[in-house]
Each structure stands twice: as C-alpha cells, then as structure tokens.
Amino acid sequence: MSTATPTPQRRSARRDGVATTVAAVTVAIVSCAGCSRRPPAPADAGLSAIETTGDAGVVDDVVALDPMDLVPGSIRAFGLVMPIGTSEHLSDPSMKMFYVSAPMSRVMRYLQRRLTITDGDIRPLGALIRRARVKFTPPGQALFVDVGLRDEGDRTFVTLWNRPALPPGPPVGTGESLRMAGFDPDSGRPLIGNHH
C-alpha cells in the first residue's frame, strides 16, 4: 500500500480553492448585511407621524414611528403628555418632577417633537429649556413650560415648571423693570422704603 503525498501543485490548488471559498463567503455576508439594512429615513420623516386627537378636538401627540422613539403615555404635565415609563416624583401647582425610564437623548428627542424650543442650555448630562411652547394645545390657548433634564444613565430626571403666557402689551424697558423690582434705574440703589 502506498500513500500518495500531495504534490506542490495540489497544495497550491487546494490553498487557492480555500482562499476563493473564504472570499466568496465574505462577499456574500457583506452583501446580505447591506441588503437587510433599511434606507435612511428623511430628516423630517418622524415629524410627519400620525397624530391622535384627544379631548375637545385637541391634537394630543405624535405617535412614534421609529422603534427607539418614546411613545406618549397617560400622564399630563401642564398640557404636555409625558412618555410611557414616566413616574411622578413630586407635584405642586407650579412644578412637577418625573423619572422617565429612558436615556436623556431619547427624552430630548421626545420633547423636541412636542415643544417649540427657542431658548435652552443643553449639555451632555443635563439641559435647561426656557419658555418652551407646548405644541398640541387647544386653539387660542398658549401653554409655556420651563424644562430641566438630568441624565441618570438608563433614566432621566425631568422637572417642568408652569410659566404663564406673558401679558399682552408693550414690552417693559430696563428702567421700568428695575423700578418694579425696587431699585433706582439711575444709581442701581434700592428705592427708599424698600429696605427689608
């Protein structure tokens, strides 16, 4: 009995065959992975989401289209519907505090769709949004809130302050504002009779 030893040509052909098979499998995996990805959504696709109508014909909220988006829940705070997974921590007539069981980035995306934000200080671990207008309110009724957020990892601490709409009328100047606060606008000193 003789055992045939592979010749150098057979070894080379076998290596080439293995290399070709590995390359073909790699190309198939990469192309299949590319096929399973969905194309990127347009920038405003989430904003054109389905809206639901609540009490008195007021459009309540935007229904999430992306599976990572938070979904509106049943808790309301000064006209703003909080997402599912929200638990109330503290409440009084002018302020409400909540824990939302989601990271701050997801909570911010939820709030950006439901508030008109014009002034804010947003940082990696917290944010303060001033005088944001609640978008989904009854016609003729403007609701404004200040929102504070603190990132706590897998949850976010949210504080909302109720801010009444500014009264109609001409804006008050700096001098009048100082006078109303009890200071002389020219010298910056307290007005007589306002010492505490």
Write the topology of this structure:
Layout: H1 8-36, E1 51-53, E2 59-62, E3 72-77, E4 80-83, E5 86-92, E6 95-100, H2 104-114, E7 115-116, E8 119-123, E9 126-134, E10 144-151, E11 156-163, H3 174-181
Antiparallel strand pairs: 1-2, 3-4, 5-6, 6-11, 7-9, 8-9, 9-10, 10-11
Looking at this protein, list some descriptive labels.
196 residues, alpha+beta, seven-stranded antiparallel β-sheet, two-stranded antiparallel sheet, elongated
Overview of this protein structure:
By secondary structure, the chain is an alpha+beta fold. It has a domain at 46-163. The chain has helices at 8-36, 104-114, 174-181, and strands at 51-53, 59-62, 72-77, 80-83, 86-92, 95-100, 115-116, 119-123, 126-134, 144-151, 156-163. Strands 5, 6, 7, 8, 9, 10 and 11 form a 7-stranded antiparallel sheet that branches. A two-stranded antiparallel ribbon has the order 1-2. A hairpin with a 5-residue loop joins β1 (51-53) and β2 (59-62). The N and C termini lie far apart (115 Å). Residues 30-59 have low confidence and may be disordered.
Short summary of the structure?
With about 200 residues, this protein is of the alpha+beta class. About 25% of the residues lie in helices and about 30% in strands. The strands form 3 sheets. Strands 5, 6, 7, 8, 9, 10 and 11 form a 7-stranded antiparallel sheet that branches. A two-stranded antiparallel ribbon has the order 1-2.
